[in-house]
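Honest question from a wet-lab person: if I give you the sequences of every part of a complex, can you actually get the arrangement of the whole thing, not just the pieces? Trying it with mine:
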Amino acid sequence: METVAPDAGTRPAKGHALRHRVRTLHVMAAAEYKLKYSGSALGYVWSALKPLALFTMMYLVFGRVFKLGTISPYYAVGLLIGIVLFTFFADATLGGTYSLVSRESLLRKLVFPRTVIPTAATLTAAITFAVNTAVVALFIAWKGIVPRLDWLLIPLLLLELYVFVLGLSLILSALFVRFRDIAQVWELALQLIFYATPVIYPLSFLPPWAQSIEFVNPLTQVLQDIRALVFYDDPANVITATDALGPYGRLIPIAIVFATVAIGLLVFKHDEPWFAERV
Amino acid sequence: MGAAPEHAIEVTNVSKTFRLPHERRDSLKEHFLHPFTRTVYERQVALTGVSFAVRRHEFFGVIGPNGSGKSTLLKILAGIYRQDSGSVDVRGRLSPFIELGVGFNTELTARDNVRINATLLGLSKRQLDERFDAIVAFSELERFIDRKLKNFSSGMLLRLAYSIAIQAEFDILLLDEVLAVGDQSFQEKCFATFDSMRAAGKTIVIVTHDLAAVTRFCDRVLLLRDGSVEAVGEVRATVARYRAKHGDTDEIAVAARA
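Yes, you can. This is the full assembly:
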Protein backbone atom coordinates (compact mmCIF):
# COMPACT_ATOMS: atom_id res chain seq x y z
CA MET A 1 0.00 0.00 0.00
CA GLU A 2 1.18 3.42 -0.82
CA THR A 3 1.57 5.85 2.02
CA VAL A 4 0.16 9.21 1.20
CA ALA A 5 1.85 12.08 2.97
CA PRO A 6 -0.76 13.12 5.49
CA ASP A 7 -0.53 16.77 4.58
CA ALA A 8 -0.75 16.19 0.85
CA GLY A 9 -4.48 16.64 0.92
CA THR A 10 -4.39 20.03 2.57
CA ARG A 11 -2.57 21.66 -0.33
CA PRO A 12 -4.73 21.80 -3.40
CA ALA A 13 -2.29 23.60 -5.69
CA LYS A 14 1.33 24.63 -5.62
CA GLY A 15 0.71 28.30 -6.32
CA HIS A 16 -1.92 28.43 -3.63
CA ALA A 17 0.43 26.74 -1.15
CA LEU A 18 3.18 29.26 -1.80
CA ARG A 19 0.83 32.20 -1.48
CA HIS A 20 -0.51 30.80 1.76
CA ARG A 21 3.00 30.29 3.09
CA VAL A 22 3.92 33.88 2.32
CA ARG A 23 0.74 35.13 3.96
CA THR A 24 1.28 32.98 7.04
CA LEU A 25 4.81 34.37 7.25
CA HIS A 26 3.60 37.91 6.97
CA VAL A 27 0.88 37.52 9.58
CA MET A 28 3.19 35.70 12.02
CA ALA A 29 6.07 38.16 11.68
CA ALA A 30 3.78 41.17 12.03
CA ALA A 31 2.10 39.69 15.11
CA GLU A 32 5.45 38.92 16.72
CA TYR A 33 6.67 42.45 16.09
CA LYS A 34 3.47 43.87 17.51
CA LEU A 35 3.78 41.64 20.58
CA LYS A 36 7.36 42.60 21.22
CA TYR A 37 6.32 46.13 22.05
CA SER A 38 2.75 45.61 23.25
CA GLY A 39 2.18 47.37 26.55
CA SER A 40 5.31 49.51 26.33
CA ALA A 41 4.76 53.27 26.29
CA LEU A 42 7.25 54.11 23.55
CA GLY A 43 6.44 51.03 21.50
CA TYR A 44 8.12 50.92 18.13
CA VAL A 45 10.46 53.76 19.09
CA TRP A 46 12.43 51.19 21.10
CA SER A 47 13.40 49.52 17.83
CA ALA A 48 15.46 52.60 16.96
CA LEU A 49 16.42 53.65 20.48
CA LYS A 50 18.32 50.50 21.40
CA PRO A 51 20.99 50.64 18.69
CA LEU A 52 21.16 54.43 19.04
CA ALA A 53 21.94 54.17 22.75
CA LEU A 54 24.57 51.52 22.03
CA PHE A 55 25.99 53.71 19.29
CA THR A 56 26.21 56.79 21.55
CA MET A 57 28.11 54.89 24.23
CA MET A 58 30.47 53.21 21.81
CA TYR A 59 31.11 56.44 19.98
CA LEU A 60 32.02 58.19 23.23
CA VAL A 61 34.30 55.37 24.37
CA PHE A 62 35.97 54.34 21.13
CA GLY A 63 35.49 57.40 18.96
CA ARG A 64 36.41 59.98 21.58
CA VAL A 65 38.31 58.34 24.45
CA PHE A 66 40.33 56.04 22.20
CA LYS A 67 40.34 58.67 19.46
CA LEU A 68 39.32 56.28 16.65
CA GLY A 69 37.11 59.10 15.41
CA THR A 70 40.12 61.03 14.21
CA ILE A 71 41.11 58.53 11.51
CA SER A 72 38.09 59.14 9.30
CA PRO A 73 35.42 61.82 9.08
CA TYR A 74 32.94 58.99 8.65
CA TYR A 75 33.85 57.01 11.77
CA ALA A 76 30.56 57.83 13.50
CA VAL A 77 28.27 56.93 10.57
CA GLY A 78 30.38 53.84 9.85
CA LEU A 79 30.02 52.77 13.48
CA LEU A 80 26.26 53.26 13.35
CA ILE A 81 25.98 51.17 10.18
CA GLY A 82 28.04 48.46 11.86
CA ILE A 83 25.94 48.45 15.01
CA VAL A 84 22.65 48.35 13.09
CA LEU A 85 23.84 45.46 10.89
CA PHE A 86 25.23 43.51 13.82
CA THR A 87 22.07 44.09 15.89
CA PHE A 88 20.04 42.64 13.03
CA PHE A 89 22.41 39.68 12.74
CA ALA A 90 22.24 38.97 16.48
CA ASP A 91 18.47 39.57 16.91
CA ALA A 92 17.53 37.49 13.90
CA THR A 93 19.73 34.48 14.66
CA LEU A 94 18.93 34.46 18.36
CA GLY A 95 15.22 34.86 17.68
CA GLY A 96 15.55 32.09 15.11
CA THR A 97 17.29 29.82 17.63
CA TYR A 98 14.42 30.03 20.11
CA SER A 99 11.65 30.12 17.50
CA LEU A 100 10.70 26.44 17.23
CA VAL A 101 10.87 25.73 20.95
CA SER A 102 8.87 28.82 21.87
CA ARG A 103 6.21 27.94 19.30
CA GLU A 104 5.81 24.49 20.79
CA SER A 105 2.00 24.54 20.89
CA LEU A 106 1.78 25.40 17.19
CA LEU A 107 4.09 22.53 16.34
CA ARG A 108 1.99 20.09 18.30
CA LYS A 109 -1.44 21.17 17.13
CA LEU A 110 -1.15 22.44 13.61
CA VAL A 111 -0.01 21.09 10.27
CA PHE A 112 1.92 23.67 8.29
CA PRO A 113 5.35 24.06 6.73
CA ARG A 114 7.73 24.23 9.68
CA THR A 115 10.24 26.48 7.91
CA VAL A 116 7.71 29.27 8.36
CA ILE A 117 8.56 29.52 12.08
CA PRO A 118 12.30 30.38 11.97
CA THR A 119 11.67 32.47 8.85
CA ALA A 120 9.03 34.53 10.66
CA ALA A 121 11.47 35.09 13.53
CA THR A 122 14.10 36.45 11.15
CA LEU A 123 11.49 38.64 9.44
CA THR A 124 10.50 40.15 12.78
CA ALA A 125 14.12 41.18 13.23
CA ALA A 126 14.09 42.48 9.67
CA ILE A 127 11.19 44.82 10.50
CA THR A 128 13.23 46.28 13.37
CA PHE A 129 16.16 46.54 11.00
CA ALA A 130 14.04 48.49 8.51
CA VAL A 131 13.15 51.03 11.22
CA ASN A 132 16.85 51.35 12.09
CA THR A 133 17.77 51.81 8.44
CA ALA A 134 15.61 54.95 8.40
CA VAL A 135 17.68 56.32 11.29
CA VAL A 136 20.93 55.48 9.47
CA ALA A 137 19.58 57.26 6.38
CA LEU A 138 18.98 60.39 8.44
CA PHE A 139 22.60 60.31 9.69
CA ILE A 140 23.90 59.88 6.15
CA ALA A 141 21.82 62.83 4.96
CA TRP A 142 22.99 64.91 7.92
CA LYS A 143 26.59 64.12 6.96
CA GLY A 144 25.79 65.58 3.54
CA ILE A 145 26.65 62.44 1.60
CA VAL A 146 24.95 62.53 -1.81
CA PRO A 147 23.44 59.20 -2.90
CA ARG A 148 24.89 57.53 -5.99
CA LEU A 149 23.47 55.06 -8.48
CA ASP A 150 25.67 52.23 -7.19
CA TRP A 151 23.86 52.43 -3.84
CA LEU A 152 21.31 50.22 -5.57
CA LEU A 153 23.74 47.41 -4.76
CA ILE A 154 23.05 47.88 -1.06
CA PRO A 155 19.70 46.02 -1.11
CA LEU A 156 21.49 43.12 -2.81
CA LEU A 157 24.10 43.07 -0.04
CA LEU A 158 21.33 43.17 2.57
CA LEU A 159 19.63 40.29 0.80
CA GLU A 160 22.89 38.34 1.02
CA LEU A 161 23.05 39.04 4.75
CA TYR A 162 19.41 38.03 5.17
CA VAL A 163 19.97 34.72 3.38
CA PHE A 164 22.97 34.06 5.63
CA VAL A 165 20.92 34.83 8.74
CA LEU A 166 18.09 32.61 7.49
CA GLY A 167 20.46 29.69 6.91
CA LEU A 168 21.94 30.10 10.39
CA SER A 169 18.45 30.30 11.91
CA LEU A 170 17.38 27.07 10.20
CA ILE A 171 20.44 25.27 11.60
CA LEU A 172 20.22 26.80 15.08
CA SER A 173 16.47 26.36 15.54
CA ALA A 174 16.63 22.68 14.55
CA LEU A 175 19.68 22.02 16.73
CA PHE A 176 18.10 23.83 19.68
CA VAL A 177 15.22 21.33 19.65
CA ARG A 178 17.76 18.54 20.26
CA PHE A 179 20.38 20.29 22.37
CA ARG A 180 19.27 23.04 24.68
CA ASP A 181 22.90 24.10 25.14
CA ILE A 182 22.78 25.68 21.69
CA ALA A 183 21.27 28.93 22.99
CA GLN A 184 24.17 29.39 25.43
CA VAL A 185 26.69 28.52 22.75
CA TRP A 186 25.20 30.94 20.26
CA GLU A 187 24.88 33.81 22.74
CA LEU A 188 28.57 33.45 23.52
CA ALA A 189 29.40 33.10 19.83
CA LEU A 190 27.56 36.34 19.09
CA GLN A 191 29.66 38.23 21.63
CA LEU A 192 32.81 36.86 20.05
CA ILE A 193 31.59 37.57 16.52
CA PHE A 194 30.89 41.18 17.52
CA TYR A 195 34.58 41.72 18.25
CA ALA A 196 35.64 39.59 15.29
CA THR A 197 33.72 41.97 13.00
CA PRO A 198 35.08 45.45 12.24
CA VAL A 199 32.18 47.27 13.91
CA ILE A 200 34.08 49.53 16.32
CA TYR A 201 37.62 49.36 14.96
CA PRO A 202 38.90 49.93 11.42
CA LEU A 203 40.11 46.80 9.64
CA SER A 204 43.33 48.60 8.72
CA PHE A 205 44.44 48.21 12.36
CA LEU A 206 44.72 44.45 11.82
CA PRO A 207 47.58 42.56 10.16
CA PRO A 208 46.66 41.18 6.71
CA TRP A 209 46.27 37.59 7.91
CA ALA A 210 43.71 38.70 10.51
CA GLN A 211 41.85 40.73 7.88
CA SER A 212 41.60 37.62 5.68
CA ILE A 213 40.13 35.64 8.56
CA GLU A 214 37.51 38.30 9.26
CA PHE A 215 36.39 38.35 5.64
CA VAL A 216 35.46 34.69 5.78
CA ASN A 217 32.46 35.94 7.75
CA PRO A 218 29.84 37.21 5.26
CA LEU A 219 28.74 39.80 7.83
CA THR A 220 32.17 41.48 7.53
CA GLN A 221 32.06 41.40 3.74
CA VAL A 222 28.55 42.93 3.62
CA LEU A 223 29.41 45.56 6.23
CA GLN A 224 32.62 46.63 4.48
CA ASP A 225 30.99 46.65 1.03
CA ILE A 226 28.18 48.88 2.31
CA ARG A 227 30.68 51.22 3.98
CA ALA A 228 32.71 51.37 0.76
CA LEU A 229 29.60 52.25 -1.24
CA VAL A 230 28.36 54.89 1.19
CA PHE A 231 31.74 56.53 1.89
CA TYR A 232 32.77 56.61 -1.77
CA ASP A 233 34.84 59.77 -1.44
CA ASP A 234 36.93 58.27 1.34
CA PRO A 235 37.89 54.90 -0.16
CA ALA A 236 41.27 54.75 1.56
CA ASN A 237 39.59 54.05 4.87
CA VAL A 238 37.49 51.14 3.71
CA ILE A 239 39.03 47.74 3.14
CA THR A 240 36.79 45.31 1.27
CA ALA A 241 36.96 41.58 0.61
CA THR A 242 38.82 42.12 -2.66
CA ASP A 243 41.58 44.03 -0.83
CA ALA A 244 42.07 41.28 1.70
CA LEU A 245 41.35 38.10 -0.27
CA GLY A 246 42.29 39.00 -3.85
CA PRO A 247 40.21 40.00 -6.90
CA TYR A 248 37.75 37.14 -6.41
CA GLY A 249 37.81 37.50 -2.64
CA ARG A 250 34.09 38.22 -2.40
CA LEU A 251 33.32 34.74 -3.68
CA ILE A 252 34.51 33.15 -0.44
CA PRO A 253 31.97 34.78 1.91
CA ILE A 254 29.26 34.48 -0.75
CA ALA A 255 29.99 30.76 -1.09
CA ILE A 256 29.73 30.50 2.68
CA VAL A 257 26.27 32.10 2.54
CA PHE A 258 25.08 29.51 0.00
CA ALA A 259 26.66 26.68 1.97
CA THR A 260 24.98 27.88 5.17
CA VAL A 261 21.54 27.92 3.56
CA ALA A 262 22.10 24.51 1.96
CA ILE A 263 23.22 22.98 5.24
CA GLY A 264 20.38 24.77 7.04
CA LEU A 265 17.76 23.28 4.73
CA LEU A 266 19.32 19.81 5.00
CA VAL A 267 19.49 19.86 8.80
CA PHE A 268 16.00 21.33 9.11
CA LYS A 269 14.35 18.95 6.64
CA HIS A 270 16.11 16.01 8.26
CA ASP A 271 14.73 16.78 11.72
CA GLU A 272 11.38 18.26 10.65
CA PRO A 273 9.19 15.14 11.08
CA TRP A 274 10.20 14.88 14.73
CA PHE A 275 9.99 18.50 15.87
CA ALA A 276 6.48 18.03 17.27
CA GLU A 277 7.47 15.21 19.61
CA ARG A 278 10.88 16.58 20.59
CA VAL A 279 10.16 20.18 21.50
CA MET B 1 -3.84 -1.55 -3.15
CA GLY B 2 -5.24 1.91 -2.45
CA ALA B 3 -7.89 3.00 -0.03
CA ALA B 4 -11.35 1.75 -0.79
CA PRO B 5 -13.25 4.63 -2.38
CA GLU B 6 -15.79 4.77 0.40
CA HIS B 7 -13.04 5.36 2.95
CA ALA B 8 -11.89 8.84 3.93
CA ILE B 9 -9.09 7.53 6.13
CA GLU B 10 -7.52 4.10 6.12
CA VAL B 11 -5.05 3.25 8.86
CA THR B 12 -3.09 0.02 8.51
CA ASN B 13 -0.94 -1.49 11.21
CA VAL B 14 0.31 1.80 12.60
CA SER B 15 2.80 1.70 15.48
CA LYS B 16 4.46 4.53 17.35
CA THR B 17 7.05 4.54 20.10
CA PHE B 18 8.29 7.68 21.79
CA ARG B 19 11.82 8.10 23.02
CA LEU B 20 11.55 10.15 26.15
CA PRO B 21 14.75 11.72 27.44
CA HIS B 22 15.58 10.45 30.89
CA GLU B 23 17.28 12.89 33.21
CA ARG B 24 20.06 10.93 34.81
CA ARG B 25 22.52 13.61 35.78
CA ASP B 26 22.84 13.48 39.49
CA SER B 27 24.87 16.57 40.18
CA LEU B 28 25.81 19.83 38.66
CA LYS B 29 29.42 18.64 38.71
CA GLU B 30 28.55 15.64 36.61
CA HIS B 31 26.72 17.91 34.23
CA PHE B 32 29.89 19.90 33.68
CA LEU B 33 32.20 16.90 33.65
CA HIS B 34 30.22 15.10 30.96
CA PRO B 35 28.39 17.79 29.04
CA PHE B 36 28.23 15.71 25.89
CA THR B 37 27.22 12.39 27.40
CA ARG B 38 24.27 11.17 25.44
CA THR B 39 21.04 11.38 27.32
CA VAL B 40 19.49 8.05 28.17
CA TYR B 41 16.13 7.52 26.55
CA GLU B 42 13.18 5.62 27.87
CA ARG B 43 11.00 3.98 25.26
CA GLN B 44 7.30 4.46 25.61
CA VAL B 45 5.06 2.50 23.30
CA ALA B 46 2.10 4.68 22.34
CA LEU B 47 0.46 2.66 19.55
CA THR B 48 0.91 -0.92 18.39
CA GLY B 49 -0.53 -2.33 15.19
CA VAL B 50 -3.52 -0.02 14.95
CA SER B 51 -5.75 -0.63 11.93
CA PHE B 52 -9.15 0.83 11.14
CA ALA B 53 -10.93 2.82 8.46
CA VAL B 54 -13.14 5.88 8.62
CA ARG B 55 -15.88 5.99 6.01
CA ARG B 56 -16.67 9.08 4.08
CA HIS B 57 -19.34 11.35 5.54
CA GLU B 58 -18.97 9.60 8.83
CA PHE B 59 -18.90 11.05 12.32
CA PHE B 60 -16.22 8.90 13.89
CA GLY B 61 -15.41 8.90 17.59
CA VAL B 62 -12.18 7.76 19.27
CA ILE B 63 -12.50 6.88 22.94
CA GLY B 64 -10.33 5.19 25.53
CA PRO B 65 -8.85 5.78 28.95
CA ASN B 66 -6.15 8.37 29.53
CA GLY B 67 -2.84 7.30 28.02
CA SER B 68 -4.44 4.84 25.61
CA GLY B 69 -2.95 6.64 22.58
CA LYS B 70 -5.98 8.61 21.35
CA SER B 71 -4.21 11.93 20.93
CA THR B 72 -1.12 10.31 19.45
CA LEU B 73 -3.31 8.58 16.90
CA LEU B 74 -5.02 11.85 16.00
CA LYS B 75 -1.66 13.59 15.61
CA ILE B 76 -0.48 10.83 13.30
CA LEU B 77 -3.67 11.16 11.21
CA ALA B 78 -3.05 14.91 10.98
CA GLY B 79 0.59 14.42 10.01
CA ILE B 80 1.95 16.14 13.12
CA TYR B 81 3.68 12.97 14.33
CA ARG B 82 5.19 10.42 12.00
CA GLN B 83 4.40 6.77 12.65
CA ASP B 84 7.30 4.32 13.07
CA SER B 85 5.61 1.75 10.84
CA GLY B 86 2.33 1.13 9.08
CA SER B 87 0.50 3.44 6.75
CA VAL B 88 -2.07 6.19 6.88
CA ASP B 89 -4.06 6.78 3.74
CA VAL B 90 -6.11 9.96 3.60
CA ARG B 91 -8.54 10.92 0.84
CA GLY B 92 -9.63 14.52 0.96
CA ARG B 93 -8.41 17.70 2.55
CA LEU B 94 -7.63 17.37 6.23
CA SER B 95 -8.28 20.23 8.58
CA PRO B 96 -4.79 21.48 9.50
CA PHE B 97 -5.57 21.83 13.21
CA ILE B 98 -6.46 19.32 15.89
CA GLU B 99 -7.33 21.73 18.64
CA LEU B 100 -9.27 24.95 18.70
CA GLY B 101 -7.61 28.33 19.11
CA VAL B 102 -4.18 27.23 17.92
CA GLY B 103 -1.77 30.15 18.07
CA PHE B 104 -4.11 32.38 20.03
CA ASN B 105 -2.15 35.09 21.72
CA THR B 106 -3.66 36.59 24.83
CA GLU B 107 -1.72 39.85 24.48
CA LEU B 108 -3.38 40.64 21.14
CA THR B 109 -6.95 41.70 20.46
CA ALA B 110 -9.66 39.30 19.36
CA ARG B 111 -9.59 40.99 15.94
CA ASP B 112 -5.86 40.32 15.49
CA ASN B 113 -6.26 36.78 16.74
CA VAL B 114 -9.05 36.05 14.29
CA ARG B 115 -6.74 37.19 11.48
CA ILE B 116 -3.78 35.14 12.71
CA ASN B 117 -5.75 32.02 13.56
CA ALA B 118 -7.76 32.04 10.34
CA THR B 119 -4.56 32.43 8.33
CA LEU B 120 -2.92 29.53 10.16
CA LEU B 121 -6.05 27.51 9.42
CA GLY B 122 -5.55 28.14 5.72
CA LEU B 123 -7.93 30.98 4.86
CA SER B 124 -6.75 33.35 2.16
CA LYS B 125 -6.95 37.10 2.67
CA ARG B 126 -10.06 37.37 0.51
CA GLN B 127 -11.77 34.49 2.27
CA LEU B 128 -10.97 36.09 5.60
CA ASP B 129 -12.30 39.48 4.52
CA GLU B 130 -15.51 37.85 3.30
CA ARG B 131 -16.01 35.70 6.37
CA PHE B 132 -14.75 37.95 9.15
CA ASP B 133 -18.22 39.24 9.99
CA ALA B 134 -19.68 35.76 9.92
CA ILE B 135 -16.99 34.56 12.33
CA VAL B 136 -17.65 37.39 14.76
CA ALA B 137 -21.41 37.01 14.46
CA PHE B 138 -21.32 33.29 15.12
CA SER B 139 -19.17 33.82 18.20
CA GLU B 140 -21.63 36.48 19.46
CA LEU B 141 -18.60 38.50 20.62
CA GLU B 142 -19.12 41.65 18.52
CA ARG B 143 -18.82 43.93 21.54
CA PHE B 144 -15.49 42.44 22.61
CA ILE B 145 -13.76 42.19 19.24
CA ASP B 146 -11.20 44.92 20.01
CA ARG B 147 -10.47 43.65 23.48
CA LYS B 148 -7.33 41.69 24.28
CA LEU B 149 -7.84 37.96 24.64
CA LYS B 150 -6.39 37.95 28.14
CA ASN B 151 -9.62 39.60 29.25
CA PHE B 152 -11.73 36.83 27.72
CA SER B 153 -13.24 34.01 29.76
CA SER B 154 -12.41 30.48 28.69
CA GLY B 155 -15.94 30.11 27.34
CA MET B 156 -15.52 33.23 25.19
CA LEU B 157 -12.17 31.95 23.92
CA LEU B 158 -13.75 28.67 22.92
CA ARG B 159 -16.59 30.41 21.13
CA LEU B 160 -14.17 32.55 19.16
CA ALA B 161 -11.92 29.59 18.34
CA TYR B 162 -14.82 27.42 17.22
CA SER B 163 -16.29 30.19 15.09
CA ILE B 164 -13.00 30.49 13.18
CA ALA B 165 -12.47 26.74 12.90
CA ILE B 166 -15.77 26.10 11.13
CA GLN B 167 -14.77 28.62 8.45
CA ALA B 168 -11.68 26.62 7.51
CA GLU B 169 -11.77 24.63 4.29
CA PHE B 170 -11.65 20.89 4.83
CA ASP B 171 -13.23 17.58 3.89
CA ILE B 172 -12.08 15.79 7.00
CA LEU B 173 -12.17 17.45 10.40
CA LEU B 174 -9.91 16.12 13.16
CA LEU B 175 -10.62 17.42 16.66
CA ASP B 176 -9.20 16.62 20.05
CA GLU B 177 -11.40 16.99 23.11
CA VAL B 178 -13.62 19.82 21.99
CA LEU B 179 -16.94 18.66 23.38
CA ALA B 180 -15.89 18.66 27.01
CA VAL B 181 -15.71 22.43 27.37
CA GLY B 182 -17.95 25.42 26.75
CA ASP B 183 -21.32 26.34 28.16
CA GLN B 184 -24.53 24.49 27.40
CA SER B 185 -25.99 26.92 24.88
CA PHE B 186 -22.82 27.16 22.84
CA GLN B 187 -22.41 23.38 22.89
CA GLU B 188 -25.87 23.12 21.35
CA LYS B 189 -24.78 25.60 18.69
CA CYS B 190 -21.68 23.49 17.99
CA PHE B 191 -23.78 20.39 17.71
CA ALA B 192 -26.00 22.14 15.17
CA THR B 193 -22.94 22.92 13.04
CA PHE B 194 -21.85 19.30 13.31
CA ASP B 195 -25.17 18.36 11.74
CA SER B 196 -24.75 20.84 8.91
CA MET B 197 -21.15 19.69 8.30
CA ARG B 198 -22.42 16.18 8.04
CA ALA B 199 -25.15 17.30 5.67
CA ALA B 200 -22.44 18.96 3.57
CA GLY B 201 -20.73 15.58 3.29
CA LYS B 202 -17.77 16.19 5.59
CA THR B 203 -16.05 13.50 7.59
CA ILE B 204 -15.44 14.20 11.27
CA VAL B 205 -13.02 12.36 13.54
CA ILE B 206 -13.24 13.34 17.15
CA VAL B 207 -11.26 12.27 20.21
CA THR B 208 -13.23 12.72 23.38
CA HIS B 209 -14.11 11.55 26.86
CA ASP B 210 -17.67 12.79 26.52
CA LEU B 211 -19.49 9.49 26.10
CA ALA B 212 -22.89 11.17 26.03
CA ALA B 213 -21.89 13.26 23.02
CA VAL B 214 -20.34 10.20 21.38
CA THR B 215 -23.58 8.31 21.78
CA ARG B 216 -25.56 11.23 20.46
CA PHE B 217 -23.50 12.08 17.38
CA CYS B 218 -21.10 9.38 16.32
CA ASP B 219 -21.87 6.83 13.63
CA ARG B 220 -19.08 4.55 14.73
CA VAL B 221 -16.54 4.48 17.52
CA LEU B 222 -12.99 3.25 17.96
CA LEU B 223 -12.03 2.11 21.45
CA LEU B 224 -8.32 2.23 22.19
CA ARG B 225 -6.65 0.55 25.11
CA ASP B 226 -2.93 0.59 25.84
CA GLY B 227 -2.21 1.65 22.29
CA SER B 228 -4.17 -1.12 20.61
CA VAL B 229 -7.60 -1.32 19.10
CA GLU B 230 -9.92 -2.98 21.61
CA ALA B 231 -13.06 -2.52 19.59
CA VAL B 232 -14.29 -0.61 16.59
CA GLY B 233 -17.81 -0.34 15.32
CA GLU B 234 -21.34 0.32 16.44
CA VAL B 235 -21.61 3.11 19.02
CA ARG B 236 -23.78 1.71 21.79
CA ALA B 237 -22.01 -1.63 22.03
CA THR B 238 -18.54 -0.05 22.01
CA VAL B 239 -19.43 2.61 24.55
CA ALA B 240 -21.04 -0.04 26.75
CA ARG B 241 -17.88 -2.10 26.53
CA TYR B 242 -15.79 0.89 27.51
CA ARG B 243 -18.06 1.68 30.45
CA ALA B 244 -18.03 -1.93 31.62
CA LYS B 245 -14.27 -2.27 31.49
CA HIS B 246 -13.05 1.08 32.59
CA GLY B 247 -15.92 2.41 34.62
CA ASP B 248 -16.77 6.06 34.29
CA THR B 249 -13.68 7.29 36.08
CA ASP B 250 -12.20 9.19 33.15
CA GLU B 251 -15.49 10.82 32.34
CA ILE B 252 -15.89 11.94 35.92
CA ALA B 253 -12.35 13.27 36.00
CA VAL B 254 -12.99 15.36 32.90
CA ALA B 255 -16.31 16.62 34.22
CA ALA B 256 -14.57 17.69 37.42
CA ARG B 257 -11.93 19.59 35.47
CA ALA B 258 -14.43 21.34 33.20
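Two things worth pointing out. The longest strand of chain B covers residues 7-22. Strands of chain B lie at 7-22, 40-55, 59-63, 85-90, 172-176, 203-207, 220-225, 228-234.
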